[in-house]
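Hey, resending since the last one bounced:
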Amino acid sequence: MAVIGFIGMGNMGYALLKGLLKEFPAEELVFTAKTDETRRRVYAETQVTYTQSNAECANSCKYVVLAVKPQYYPQVLKQIRYAVTEEHVVISLAPGITIEQLKEALGSDKRIVRAMPNTPALIGEGMTGLTYLEEELQEDEIAMVHKIFGSVGRYADVEERMMSAVVCASGSSPAFVYQFIEALADGAVQFGLPRAQAYTFAAQAVAGAAKMVLETGEHPASLKDKVCSPGGTTIAGVAALENAGFRGAVMKACEACWEKSESMK
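The structure tokens again:
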């Protein structure tokens, strides 16, 4: 019997599965996917066993990761309702679907963890928000949930009411960062830097800046000020971003994510 099972092999499910293979042997994992083609492809790439149905996948493991899009949850929850027991720990990756809603669909005795990871989990640099009812899980089960998401990056426990904010801060934000890297590279290409080099310079600058925030513990504004020499190039660029409403645009993007996540309840 496997330890961790994945129902769904979209971008997020696949990223987590690939990430977990760095810490867990393939025989401790199992998955299922919507189509035979996807099941065969993922098996060929990972050597992780797959099942033909969602119920069979749930029966084959203790920790069941629901990695399907929110619109498919009603169908999937019906299919696994009688396969999931009080011994299982169900880990939901869907934004907006609450623990209470999941218990209504699966049974009030079911034990639920909500997780909001992001796709950098694929390379071990993910960030995951976790929420659960602590009294429902054993210490070793909490430790396993932490191990699962710790094996693909960082994680933090949060109150459930904060999960939509986690979607803004880390769940959806990699897409915003990719947009920024693309725009930054376009700006450099405009002034003659070859595109391949422009992407490398821009992406490494973002990676390095993020690492500075995490490893120094300094406030981002303080780190920004250290780059901005009086009358220099950086402060000129910062001023241009401010005049264009850069920070306001980012906060508007977060607001849109939060509202969409909340509307899914």
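The CA atoms of residues 213 and 221 lie 10 Å apart.

Sorry for the duplicate.
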